[in-house]
Write a structure and sequence with these properties.
heterodimer, A: 132 residues, mainly alpha, B: 644 residues, two-stranded antiparallel sheet, 21 helices
Chain lengths: 132, 644
């Protein structure tokens, strides 16, 4: 029973670690593709709304939701980074050193992703969606 | 200089095991094995030499173009010849030199750096090389035929559609790149699997050399980016040959679709070229600073970040196409942010130099040359991330100056550093330091003399891709300087080639570790034996060759499960932590990869010349060869593991 619990914990821990590493990048990818394609395709078609939602609102959603995702990944990566300190002689538990490296990578990656989403949001605040 | 030999470390197992290893891995010197080799070291060297030859062709094109542009109204080249030369120059430098050259380093070095005996798929590796060779010949053969691509290396439609560019020119481009893409894709798959599954036991992700990280990240980028370029080229070929309408607005197509697809590939491709080169810098620099690289985790982060973010910046190549400004905003943000991980690597190298004890050797000089020129290219790169500046300078010589600083600085200097650094390991011979230093100064001075004036002529309004220009516009002195610089660079590069030949013919025998390197390739003999490692090491550190425990792991007490003398085998380990899994059998030499590549050449030649029966015969040859290649070998029930 305990083995089953620990393997489940390992699975959850592994998934959380991968979310910590790639969550921000995935959020930014969603933001980038959604915000850009909504803006470009709607403007090309001459619309100022998307399924009844004003274009500015749709783009705001494409900024805010991914920003929330990137923030969550950032929090998880900070927690992982703090809890996964590698031992001085790493041979004791090799997975700790590796997981710590991944947490560091994730932490900085999430920060950059969040920055890009925020910068995109600032652009959406100051530029009308279809101005060319 | 510290030096050591494998024998001095006690790395050899018993003579019987050594004889068995040699019997299973060595290839008898014959024409048959020359065409059938699957040894990653031989294939890596072939990539390097072939890419260098294509570099020579592309460089000669550049010298011809610079001679034409030395003064106004020159008539050395006709517009038609000039168009073909600048297109082939760019296409070859990007596709036939940079990436294959760096894949050559990867081929030679990745198995050595991770403690493996070969690439994961040796036959696929050989296939990739032959396809690269044939694709390069396919494209270069069009130059003397007067049918070379002539629409620029990014071949924008509608300039390149059948109506505006009739003839075979753009068919050579589209088919040549599709052909080459098969090689690059197979190489990328091979690198990823090799680095994830064949690392020596104990080499967890936090102990992987930066160069290997860079090659793996690059390979992932290739797998995502290249299909987009392939799609683009396939659509253009269909438009041109079969009158489809993907890029014709008047018939329902979209002319900007080409640019979007091209740059979704094209911008990551800048990093596909530069990133392995940065990996070379991260391998070379610490050794000549006599300490480990500063900020290893941040450099790994930087590699991963660049590999991801580079896919979200492509529209900054299209800032002058009239898309909504808000769209530009999203891409401008990413284009600005991507400079952070790039800059981080620069600071990590500077910090390594600051806290280390510098040994000014020839590879180190080229690394410093890289740092200076790449930073200049990076600064102008940030300027292009700003839409307003980009729109003012797009399609001027300022752009030409920028990307040559990035690509010459970011790829050629590290490649030359890598050539001098690993030449002793690859050839077993030391090079002439004097020749190397002369080559560096000629290349460095010549490069800056060639490309720096282009910033000025660009700001003065000189458009790129003009075969000549009128005098009196203020461009003349800058063009003359650039042309003089081109000849100086050519002299420097010639000296590099002379240095390599001199080393091969008259160089002193190289010790196994002439520089005191930290990674596993320096634990092998120079040049490495066919099996690379008599004993596969157990890795305990990021710097295995500086770590006594790792060195001891290949000593007399090495266990049988890492000697693996009974067969042509290497070790398979887990992806993340490098835990021992099982030995895997590696294939022997075969000419099937060559045959499959010949079949592909027939397919593409047939398509180019509209000899569709030749293409069909080629396809049949490819399918037949692949069937024979993949057919399960005959095994006894014991060998197959199904005996009762």
């Amino acid at each position: 029973m305990s083995e089953r619990v620990s393997s489940r914990a390992a699975l959850v821990g592994g998934l959380l670690l991968w979310f910590a590493v790639l969550g921000g990048a995935l959020s930014w990818a969603v933001h980038s593709l959604a915000a850009w394609s909504i803006d470009e395709l709607a403007c090309e078609a001459g619309h100022d709304d998307l399924a009844g939602v004003p274009l500015v609102g749709a783009i705001a959603l494409a900024v805010l939701l991914p920003a929330a995702g990137a923030t969550a990944a950032l929090v998880v990566s900070v927690l992982a980074w703090r809890r996964l300190r590698p031992e001085p002689r790493e041979d004791g538990d090799r997975a700790t050193g590796r997981a710590h490296l991944l947490a560091v990578v994730g932490l900085w990656l999430n920060l950059l992703a969040l920055a890009m989403i925020v910068f995109g949001g600032v652009a959406a605040l100051v530029l009308p969606p279809c101005q060319r | 200089m510290p030096s050591s030999t494998a024998a001095a470390r006690g790395t050899r197992p018993g003579p019987e095991a050594m004889a068995s290893l040699t019997r299973h891995w060595a290839e008898a010197p014959s024409l048959r094995t020359w065409f059938g080799t699957v040894d990653h070291k031989r294939i890596g060297r072939r990539y390097l030499v072939t890419a260098a030859v294509f570099f020579g062709f592309a460089g000669a094109s550049a010298v011809a173009m610079r001679t034409q542009l030395a003064g106004p109204e020159a008539g050395i080249l006709s517009p038609r010849e000039y168009n073909q030369l600048f297109t082939m120059h760019g296409t070859a430098m990007i596709f036939l030199f940079s990436t294959p050259m760096l894949f050559g380093f990867g081929n030679f070095l990745v198995p050595l750096m991770i403690g493996a005996r070969d690439m994961a798929f040796p036959r696929l590796n050989a296939f990739g090389y032959w396809v690269f060779l044939f694709a390069g010949l396919f494209m270069w053969a069009s130059v003397p035929a007067g049918a070379a691509p002539n629409g620029g290396w990014f071949a924008y439609v509608p300039l390149t559609d059948e109506r505006n560019t009739p003839g075979l020119h753009l068919d050579v481009y589209t088919l040549g790149l599709l052909f080459l893409g098969i090689s690059t894709t197979s190489g990328a798959v091979n690198f990823i699997v090799t680095a994830l599954k064949l690392r020596a036991p104990g080499m967890s992700l936090n102990r992987v050399p930066v160069f290997v990280w860079a090659i793996v990240a690059t390979s992932f980028m290739v797998l995502v980016a290249l299909p987009v370029l392939n799609l683009d080229n396939a659509l253009l070929f269909l438009d041109r040959r079969f009158d489809t309408r993907f890029f014709e607005p008047e018939r329902g197509g979209n002319v900007l679709l080409w640019q979007h697809l091209f740059w979704i590939f094209g911008h990551p491709d800048v990093y596909i070229i530069v990133m392995p080169a940065l990996g070379i810098v991260s391998a070379v620099l610490p050794v000549f600073c006599r300490r480990g690289i500063v900020g290893y985790p941040l450099i790994v982060f930087s590699i991963v970040a660049i590999a991801i973010i580079s896919f979200g910046v492509w529209v900054h190549h299209m800032f002058a196409t009239g898309l909504p400004q808000l769209s530009y905003g999203f891409f401008s943000a990413a284009s600005t942010v991507i400079t952070i991980p790039s800059g981080l690597q620069i600071f990590a190298w500077l910090a390594t130099m600051l806290v280390g004890r510098i040994v000014v050797s020839v590879p180190f000089l080229f690394v410093v040359g890289f740092l200076v020129t790449f930073v200049v290219g990076g600064v102008t790169g940030v300027m292009f991330a700003l839409t307003a500046f980009d729109q003012q300078t797009t399609d001027t010589y300022f752009v030409v100056a920028h990307f040559h600083y990035v690509l010459f600085g970011g790829a050629v200097f590290p490649i030359l550093a890598g050539v001098y650094y690993w030449l002793p390991k690859m050839t077993g011979r030391m090079f002439s330091v004097r020749l190397g230093r002369w080559a560096f100064w000629l290349v460095f001075v010549g490069m800056n003399l060639t490309f720096f004036p282009m910033h000025v002529s660009g700001l003065l309004g000189m458009p790129r891709r003009v075969y000549t220009y009128p005098g009196g516009l203020g461009w003349d002195p800058w063009n003359l300087l650039a042309t003089i610089g081109a000849y100086v660079v050519a002299a420097g590069l010639l000296l590099v080639a002379v240095g390599v030949v001199h080393a091969l013919r008259r160089g002193a025998p190289a010790p196994d570790d002439p520089w005191g390197g930290d990674s596993l390739e320096w634990t092998t003999s120079s040049p490495p034996k066919p099996y690379n490692f008599p004993v596969i090491p157990r890795v305990h550190s990021l710097h295995p060759n500086w770590d006594p425990r790792t060195v001891e792991s290949t000593g007399p007490g090495a266990t049988e499960d890492r000697i693996l003398a009974e067969g042509r085998t290497t070790l398979c380990t887990s992806e993340l932590d490098g835990r021992y899994e099982r030995p895997v059998e590696m294939p022997e030499e075969t000419r099937k990869p060559l045959l499959a590549a010949v079949g592909l050449l027939m397919v593409f030649l047939g398509l180019l010349l509209a000899w569709y029966w030749v293409a069909a015969a080629g396809a049949a040859l490819v399918i037949g060869t692949l069937a024979a290649w993949l057919w399960p070998p005959r095994r006894t029930p014991q060998e197959a593991g199904v005996a009762g």
